[in-house]
Write a structure and sequence with these properties.
The chain has helices at 15-25, 27-45, 49-57, 60-66, 68-81, 85-92, 94-102. It is an all-alpha fold and 131 residues long. The chain has a domain at 15-102.
């Protein structure tokens, strides 16, 4: 796993603009996290990239119905990070995906837990350094 230095990120604007600014400034970190999670899902859960994307695609409508600005921010993040919306949705729903797999009767096997910070855009602001 690649170690990425701490970033200080500043965002403003509407939901899409905030997401895009964050994705642009943290592109390498977001892409590395996506690659790590997709590797874990395939290696430890036996989930292909296509299956994870399918799972994530089904989340867009309920998220948008709950709060359209959350979805807009994730769309901006995806564009700024040069990833698909489904990849961002999958990362944000990583625990739901793992629990869904656990209760599907297929089991989890050996699960690796990643300690990789990725700001779940819709849930909390990024931490900023104070020096």
């Amino acid at each position: 796993m690649q170690i990425i230095p701490d970033l200080i990120i500043s965002v403003s604007g509407n939901a899409y603009q905030r997401g895009h600014a964050y994705g642009s400034q943290a592109r390498g970190s977001v892409q590395a996290n996506a690659a790590d999670y997709f590797c874990v899902w395939e290696t430890d859960l036996g989930l292909t990239r296509e299956r994870v994307i399918e799972f994530a695609r089904d989340l867009a409508t309920p998220i948008g119905n709950y709060d359209a600005t959350i979805l807009e921010e994730m769309e901006g993040l995806a564009a700024g990070a040069e990833l698909s919306l489904e990849e961002i949705l999958a990362i944000n729903a990583r625990y739901e995906l793992m629990f869904a797999q656990a209760f599907s009767g297929q089991g989890l096997g050996c699960l690796h837990l990643l300690n990789v910070p990725l700001w779940p855009l819709a849930l909390q602001p990024p931490q900023t350094a104070t020096h």
